[in-house]
UniProtKB/TrEMBL annotation:
Residues 180-320 form the Glycerol-3-phosphate dehydrogenase NAD-dependent C-terminal domain. The gene is gpsA. Its EC number is 1.1.1.94. InterPro entries: 6-PGluconate_DH-like_C_sf, 6PGD_dom2, G3P_DH_NAD-dep, G3P_DH_NAD-dep_C, G3P_DH_NAD-dep_N, NAD(P)-bd_dom_sf. Pfam families: NAD_Gly3P_dh_C (PF07479), NAD_Gly3P_dh_N (PF01210). Catalyzes the reduction of the glycolytic intermediate dihydroxyacetone phosphate (DHAP) to sn-glycerol 3-phosphate (G3P), the key precursor for phospholipid synthesis. This is Glycerol-3-phosphate dehydrogenase [NAD(P)+]. Sn-glycerol 3-phosphate binds at K106, G136, K191, D244, S254, R255, N256. Substrate binds at K106, R255, N256. Keywords: Cytoplasm, Lipid biosynthesis, Lipid metabolism, NAD, NADP, Nucleotide-binding, Oxidoreductase, Phospholipid biosynthesis, Phospholipid metabolism. Pathway: Membrane lipid metabolism; glycerophospholipid metabolism.
Length: 331
């Protein structure tokens, strides 16, 4: 039986703990608020993030990072991307140096433009064989309802990816291995930005043609960036790329899609942020994604339009007009 730690008792940390416990793991779920940790252990639910979902017996919550780390083969990291560096700096001293660190996050760090695997490497000094990523079309509510889903587990060391696949594999959750960590991470981070754009289109009551165009051209620009950063384009055609793009852009459960839809309906960024209780990673990460694009001389017009709306106050309709007026070109 695998002994694993999950750091972050938010929506996705908790849902991942459920998958791990369903797969037979003994799971220590670290939460930063002692009152939520107590509530999880007493009620066997996470009332703040996944109300109504009964947590399997294999999960024990703790507010003590050392208790969570004790004997853990894998440490899953599930906070928001912009909080990872600070949080991991606190946990790193208690995490053993043979524990594999697994990013659950889909974002790019502001200021440094680092992917989460790169932040993990910088903070802990871990090598690529100790850093892995889980990414794919995995909306937490559907996962905890045990609806069939697939995902990607990536590590540069394929034996580590295969072990990770084992500890996450259940009758409802089917992980595929990959060694393209950067491709998987970029697929996850950039689809959040594209989902903001698709959400805006929904909010402005555009139809499926518009959304299909944004998703398809969004995947094209994601792939351009990923390839420029050394990823395999096939990764972006898979679950961590196209798969996650479809789920996030199509689902009303997506926080990024919801945030975009509120902007499209006319809410300001401040108003849209005020109604969110969970993380919509694309709102911060769009800036870092665009930075990466510029650094790698890659054109990402949709990401640029999203940054215009989210950071520079451009009206979503003006952003659409700008995209449509771009010079004609071959596909
Ligand atoms: N929810 C999903 O369906 C889903 C699925 C796949 C991936 N993800 C990714 O997982 C990551 C986490 O998302 P989420 O849905 O769990 O978000 P969330 O908002 O539900 O939870 C975030 C968690 O991080 C904790 N946190 C925030 N700041 C912290 C800090 N400074 N120190 C310690 N803990 C801190 C919060 O207390 C909370 O428990 C994101 O990158 C997201 O893109 C989410
Ligand atoms: O709710 P979102 O927009 O953060 O998306 C959740 C997951 O990343 C979908 O795979």
């Amino acid at each position: 039986m695998a002994r694993v730690a999950v750091y972050g008792a938010g929506s996705w940390g908790t849902a991942t703990a459920v998958v791990l416990a369903d797969a037979g793991g003994e799971v220590a779920l670290w939460g930063r608020r002692p009152e939520l940790v107590r509530a999880i252990n007493v009620t066997r639910t996470n009332p703040d993030y996944l109300p109504g979902v009964v947590l399997p017996d294999g999960i024990t919550a703790t507010a003590d990072p050392a208790e969570a780390a004790d004997g853990a083969e894998f440490a899953f990291l599930g906070v928001s991307a912009q909080q990872l560096r600070g949080a991991l700096t606190g946990w790193a001293p208690v995490i053993r140096d043979d524990t594999v660190l697994v990013s659950l996050m889909k974002g790019v760090e502001l200021g440094t433009d680092l992917l989460m695997s790169q932040v993990i490497a910088e903070v802990t000094g871990a090598g690529p064989d100790r850093i892995a990523v889980v990414s794919g079309p995995n909306l937490a509510k559907e996962i905890t309802a045990r609806q069939p889903a697939a995902s990607v587990v990536a590590c540069r060391d394929i034996t580590v990816a295969e072990r990770l696949q084992q500890v996450l594999h259940t009758p409802c959750f089917r992980p595929y291995t990959n060694t393209d960590v950067i491709g998987c991470e970029l697929g996850g981070a950039v689809k959040n930005v594209i989902a903001l754009a698709v959400g805006m289109a929904d909010g402005m009551e555009f139809g499926d043609n518009t959304k299909a165009a944004l998703m398809t051209r969004g995947l094209a620009e994601t792939t351009r960036l990923a390839v420029a950063m050394g990823a395999d384009p096939q990764t972006l055609a898979g679950l961590a790329g196209m798969g996650d793009l479809i789920a996030t852009c199509a689902s009303p459960l997506s926080r990024n899609h919801t945030f975009g839809a509120n902007l499209g309906r006319g809410l300001s960024v401040t108003q849209a942020s005020a109604v969110m209780t969970q993380t919509a990673e694309g709102v911060a990460s769009c800036v870092s994604v665009l930075d990466l694009a510029r650094r790698h001389a890659v054109e990402m017009p949709i990401a640029e339009a999203v940054v215009g709306v989210v950071k520079d106050g451009v009206h979503p309709r003006t952003a659409v007009k700008g995209l449509m007026e771009r010079a004609a070109k071959p596909e």
